[in-house]
Structures are given as structure tokens and as C-alpha cells.
């Protein structure tokens, strides 16, 4: 493997939360976590490259295989790693507000200023995660995702595979997916999204309203799924996944409510954290659930 440039990590960086997110499926075909190392297979230029990201106190050390990546591949790998580590965006605004705002200071008190919101390596990957995870538990969602990657992913010599592209998913037979434990609707949602013509990887380059509008009207991509993609893949700073059960539970605990807040109340309770509701959501999930 060849070493790539290190990625600096902020003081107090919560590596545990990032490792937990990327290690959700211990048997994952596209990414795995062992100790403090995240292994991810990516295909930035049409060939599978294994990327090892090892987290240290002050930096992340990166290695790639094969050991001859082009400059363009290196740039893409570094960008993907920064996204996965949650350090691709500026979060100083919410942390600065904590100095003057007691509610924000209390929000950050449990996890500290080093908490970051890890992203998926790609936007379409996040969408597939969201769709396979609809109305099923995490274990079964991981099983469906492994099946999807095995069917259409690009193989690496290690035995792992890069996550499929929209073209790869679009070519799948929904009847075949049905024999592999996908519901008819879930198979249709995945294939319809893949065939939608949306430039998913281009969504973060615009604004949040444009990105959400691009996904609106696609069957299977409802409000929660859109919010997940905007939050976990596009790295927009001011997204609150209204309707998310974990967010509702965290808000109930944070505000000591005697009830679980509904969507309208969640919206109102998150409003004081604008325009940094994405990081605020991360703190609520990590510290108040």
C-alpha cells in the first residue's frame, strides 16, 4: 500500500462516534472497521481502490492499494476520506455560539467541541443506505446492502467491493432482488432512483433547496430519506431530519418534555440552532439519546 497525505483532526475529535458510524455492518463488503482503522473500497476513476484510514489523536493516516493512484484518484480519495471523517466542512459557527448561548453550550456539553458528523463516501451510497433501511432493523438493512454491493459493486483484490454506481443498480433485475429478500417496493425504489437521471454526486455542489427539489417526486424518496441524504451525504450545515425517531427522543430528553415531540414541535425546537442544525442534530443523537 502507498501512504497518502495525512488529514488533520480537530482537538477533542470524537473518533469513537465516527468509527461506530462506519462500523455499523461488521461484515460490510464496501467498508469495515477494525480497531481505529476504517477500510473503504472506492472507485474514483472506474477501478477499485482500497483506502485504509487510521485514526490517531491529532490526524488520520491514509494508505491506498493499488500503490499507483493517479493525482486525480488521490484528490478524490482525500476528499472522500475528509467527508467520511466529518471534517470537510466548517463547524466553528455553532461552537462559537456556545460561548454566548447557554442552550447551545448545554447541547455541546456532553460530547464537546470535537464532535463531527461523519458522511458517507458518496451521495448515491447514502441514498441506497436510506432506502434499504426503510422500515427494517439495522442488521437486516446491512444484509440487504451487502447483497446489493455483491451483485453490482466493483471488486477489489482484497475481496471487498466498491459501492455500486447508479448505472450498476439500474441494470439489476427487480425479480432477482425479490428472490434475495428485497420487498417488491424496496427493489423498485432502488432501481427507480438509479434510473432517475439525477446527478447525485453533484448535489452537494449546489444549495440545499436545489438538492432537495431534485430528489422530490421520486417514488421511495420521501421527506425523511431526502433529509438523510442532505445531512449524511451532502454535508449541508443546516439540515434537521424532522420526523426522525432518534431526533424526537433526543429533543424530548434535552428539553425534559413529558411527551415525544411531533414533527411541528421538532421543527420549532430545532429552529434556535439554525444555521447549524446539522451539527446540532449530531450532538443530540450522540449526547442526548
Automatic annotation (TrEMBL):
<dbReference type="GO" id="GO:0032993">
    <property type="term" value="C:protein-DNA complex"/>
</dbReference>
<dbReference type="GO" id="GO:0043916">
    <property type="term" value="F:DNA-7-methylguanine glycosylase activity"/>
</dbReference>
<dbReference type="InterPro" id="IPR011257">
    <property type="entry name" value="DNA_glycosylase"/>
</dbReference>
<dbReference type="InterPro" id="IPR003265">
    <property type="entry name" value="HhH-GPD_domain"/>
</dbReference>
<keyword id="KW-0234">DNA repair</keyword>
<dbReference type="GO" id="GO:0006307">
    <property type="term" value="P:DNA alkylation repair"/>
</dbReference>
<feature type="domain" description="HhH-GPD">
    <location>
        <begin position="132"/>
        <end position="289"/>
    </location>
</feature>
<protein>
    <recommendedName>
        <fullName>DNA-3-methyladenine glycosylase II</fullName>
        <ecNumber>3.2.2.21</ecNumber>
    </recommendedName>
</protein>
<keyword id="KW-0227">DNA damage</keyword>
<dbReference type="GO" id="GO:0032131">
    <property type="term" value="F:alkylated DNA binding"/>
</dbReference>
<dbReference type="InterPro" id="IPR051912">
    <property type="entry name" value="Alkylbase_DNA_Glycosylase/TA"/>
</dbReference>
<dbReference type="GO" id="GO:0006285">
    <property type="term" value="P:base-excision repair, AP site formation"/>
</dbReference>
<dbReference type="GO" id="GO:0008725">
    <property type="term" value="F:DNA-3-methyladenine glycosylase activity"/>
</dbReference>
<dbReference type="GO" id="GO:0005737">
    <property type="term" value="C:cytoplasm"/>
</dbReference>
<dbReference type="Pfam" id="PF00730">
    <property type="entry name" value="HhH-GPD"/>
</dbReference>
Amino acid at each position: 500500500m502507498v501512504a497518502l497525505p495525512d488529514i488533520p483532526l480537530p482537538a477533542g475529535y470524537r473518533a469513537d462516534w465516527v468509527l461506530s458510524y462506519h462500523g455499523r455492518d461488521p461484515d460490510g463488503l464496501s467498508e469495515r472497521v477494525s480497531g481505529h482503522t476504517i477500510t473503504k473500497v472506492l472507485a474514483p476513476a472506474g477501478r477499485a481502490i482500497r483506502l485504509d484510514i487510521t485514526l490517531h489523536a491529532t490526524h488520520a493516516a491514509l494508505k491506498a492499494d493499488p500503490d499507483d493512484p493517479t493525482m486525480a484518484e488521490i484528490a478524490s480519495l482525500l476528499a472522500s476520506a475528509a467527508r467520511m471523517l466529518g471534517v470537510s466542512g466548517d463547524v466553528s459557527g455553532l461552537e462559537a455560539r456556545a460561548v454566548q448561548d447557554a442552550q447551545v453550550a448545554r447541547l455541546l456539553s456532553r460530547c464537546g467541541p470535537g464532535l463531527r458528523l461523519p458522511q458517507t463516501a458518496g451521495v448515491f451510497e447514502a441514498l441506497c443506505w436510506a432506502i434499504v433501511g426503510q422500515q427494517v432493523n439495522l442488521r437486516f438493512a446491512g444484509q440487504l446492502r451487502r447483497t446489493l454491493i455483491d451483485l453490482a459493486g466493483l471488486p477489489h483484490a482484497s475481496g471487498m467491493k466498491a459501492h455500486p454506481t447508479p448505472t450498476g443498480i439500474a441494470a439489476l433485475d427487480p425479480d432477482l432482488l425479490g428472490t434475495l429478500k428485497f420487498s417488491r417496493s424496496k427493489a423498485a425504489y432502488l432501481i427507480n432512483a438509479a434510473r432517475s437521471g439525477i446527478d447525485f454526486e453533484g448535489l452537494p455542489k449546489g444549495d440545499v433547496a436545489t438538492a432537495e427539489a431534485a430528489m422530490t417526486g421520486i417514488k421511495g424518496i420521501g421527506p425523511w430519506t431526502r433529509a438523510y441524504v442532505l445531512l449524511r451525504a451532502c454535508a449541508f450545515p443546516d439540515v434537521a431530519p424532522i420526523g426522525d425517531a432518534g431526533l424526537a427522543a433526543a429533543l424530548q430528553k434535552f428539553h425534559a418534555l413529558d411527551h415525544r415531540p411531533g414533527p411541528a414541535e421538532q421543527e420549532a425546537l430545532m429552529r434556535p440552532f439554525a444555521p447549524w442544525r446539522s451539527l446540532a442534530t449530531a450532538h443530540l443523537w450522540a449526547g442526548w439519546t
